[in-house]
Amino acid sequence: MPLTLEIVTPEARVYSQTVDSVVIPTVEGEVGILPGHVPLMTQVGAGELRATKGNVTELLIVGGGFAQVTAEKVSILADSAIEAQRIDVNVVEDAMKRAEDALKGMAHLSQAEVERLEAVVRFSVAQLTVKKKR
Amino acid sequence: MPSTRDIRRRIKSVKNTRQITKAMELVAASKMKKAQQTAINGLPYANLLADVLASLASRIEETSHPFLVQRPVRTRGILLITTDKGLCGPLNANLFKLVSEIHTPVKYYSIGRKGTQFLARTKRAMVAEFQVHDRVPFAEVKVASEFMIKQYLEGEIDTIEVIYPRFKNTLVQVPTVRPVLPLESLKDFLDQLGKDTGTVRVPHADDREFLFEPGITEVLNALLPFYVDHQIHQIALSAKASEHSARMVAMKTAKDNATELLDDLTLEYNKARQAAITQEILEIAAAQYSAA
What we know:
By secondary structure, chain A is α+β, with helices and mostly antiparallel strands. Chain A folds into two domains: 3-84, ATP Synthase, domain 1, CATH 2.60.15.10; 88-133. Helix content of chain A is 29%, strand content 46%. In chain A, strands 1, 2, 3, 4, 5, 6, 7 and 8 form an eight-stranded mixed β-sheet that branches. In chain A, strand 1 (3-8) and strand 2 form a beta hairpin. In chain A, helix 1 runs antiparallel to helix 2 (111-133). Chain A is globular and about 50 Å long. The N and C termini of chain A lie far apart (32 Å). Chain B is of the alpha/beta class. Chain B has two domains: 4-20 and 252-291, ATP synthase, gamma subunit, helix hairpin domain (Helix Hairpins), CATH 1.10.287; 26-248, 3-Layer(aba) Sandwich (Pyruvate Kinase, Chain: A, domain 1). In chain B, 62% of the residues lie in helices and 13% in strands. Chain B has helices at residues 4-41, 43-59, 91-100, 113-121, 138-154, 184-197, 216-291, and strands at residues 76-81, 106-111, 126-130, 159-167, 173-181, 211-213. In chain B, helix 4 (113-121) links the parallel strand 2 and strand 3. The longest helix of chain B has 76 residues, at 216-291. The chains are: A alpha+beta, B alpha/beta. Chains A and B meet through strand 5 and strand 7 of A and helix 2, helix 5, strand 6 and helix 7 of B. Strand 5 of chain A pairs parallel with strand 6 of chain B.
């Protein structure tokens, strides 16, 4: 029984393929999903997501969101997501620096803005960690 | 027969109109492209989110969360999304027609100046109006949706619905009433929408009950308000794409009409000019004939 993995962000559909298994970084730690998994609804944290097909493992970075798991399908609604080989360290560091600078002048920022910037930082950190590991 | 000078004056003014409408068409076209792209890119996310929610709503046993409870509807809460400016064809008028078909008690919330004016003119109960910038930033739409959620939780309104021009393609915008809360009504609407667009939603084969991590309340508390905010934002994006599309089409029609009018006027002008010359020659000939 195949497992369909679908990752979408507000900007685009990042990933949509059938895989053998997938490891999701939830807020409570990593969860491995195989076909036929019991229906599960969970919050996704910023971190690395591994999708395995045959003996190839694809690495993606997600930046928080929700995941819905049913027996045949894993749907991930992420704030942001990127495939590991597409990460550009310079771009990430830039984005992180800008977000951090903006956060330093936090006093005049609205609650929503702060949350958004913190999400950018978390996503950036997750991308850099993966990049350094490889 | 109008004099050549009168016709010339009219030609000039029609030419000016054509120039303006042409410029506005180009502006609308470039804005349209951007707005359509944003609306279309966000669609998979919004659809998946709605899908997740709909299947969730039907499978949760304890419907303790206020967003999931179907209350007896006393007052509907409707967010009317219109444009700030006119010159966009029948876009707003179509929405107003939908509004005037509603006879149950409703409280209105408005995004867009045209809608606000309409609600005020027809003396409907309007609770609040919100300003949303042309780029439709999430934060600005969120203000409106958060306010409506607050009113919903306080029991001021028993539903949250949105009336907006749903973007189908550049030529077609469908005035739509879209239910957002409670989620029970969402499923019917999704089925309907699926029929309209020709995509049949396959019900999940797996009908076991959901596990929630970290816990059902945590997940629902995070997911549901986020869903409403995001959904309304997506709707506003679609409305914006519709606005620019409708405006471009309206301006294109205006430009075409001006061109046609210009052709007619030019023809008339040439006829009048020719008639005047003929007349003059006739007069000269007659004068010479009588002098001889």
